[in-house]
Amino acid sequence: MADNATLVRSLYDGWNARDFDALADLMAPDGTITFMGSGEVLTGPEGSRTYNQMWANGFPDGRVTIDTLVADGDRVVVEFTGRGTHTGTFVTSMGEIPPTGKSVTLKLCDVVEVANGKVRAQRSYLDTGSMMAQLGLTSGQTATANQ
């Protein structure tokens, strides 16, 4: 069995490879993915598929790179950067966002808890204001990727 840091790193590598079945296999049957901004919770392997496909459908050319990964016991914290072009419909808990054609660079952070070689919980932190500004969907100041 891989250590927790290696297991969590494989979540991001698997997303870049669009291997959603492998990612679903890493999720505990009662494991959760929580969007910390909205409180939306997705559960189990199907929740993992929904989460990963949501991003891939909205940003088909999207890629993530890990900036920092710190493991301590059963918790792994990952700061990462997501880049992509919004050319597909992005389905969120607040509704669908039709393609804007705009490119985004997002700074994200996940806190992942692992138990028995599976993801027990993933708490995902995202600055939705920055994302919406980069997509041109808010008025006011335009966010930049280097904030």
Describe this structure in words.
The protein is of the alpha+beta class and 147 residues long. The protein has a single domain, classed as Nuclear Transport Factor 2, Chain: A (Roll), CATH 3.10.450. The chain has helices spanning 4-16, 20-25, 44-58, 128-134; strands at 27-35, 41-43, 63-72, 75-85, 90-92, 95-97, 103-115, 118-126. The strands form two sheets. Strands 2-1-8-7-4-3 form a six-stranded mixed sheet. Strands 5-6 form a two-stranded antiparallel ribbon. The longest helix is centred in the middle third of the chain and has 15 residues, at 44-58. The protein is globular, with a radius of gyration of 15 Å. Mean pLDDT is 92; it is low at 141-147. This is Ester cyclase. Pfam families: SnoaL (PF07366). InterPro entries: Cyclase_SnoaL-like.
Q: What is the CATH class?
A: Alpha Beta
Q: Kindly report the spatial arrangement of strands forming the biggest sheet.
A: 2-1-8-7-4-3
Main sheet properties: 6 strands, mixed
Distance between the termini: 38 Å
The overall pLDDT average reads 92
Rg, rounded, reads 15 Å
> What's the helix count?
4
Our estimate of the beta-strand percent is 35-45%
* Structural class determined from secondary elements: alpha+beta
CATH topology: Nuclear Transport Factor 2, Chain: A
Principal-axes shape call: globular
How many domain regions?
Answer: 1
Low-confidence stretches: 141-147
Got a strand count? 8
Q: Architecture, CATH level 2?
A: Roll
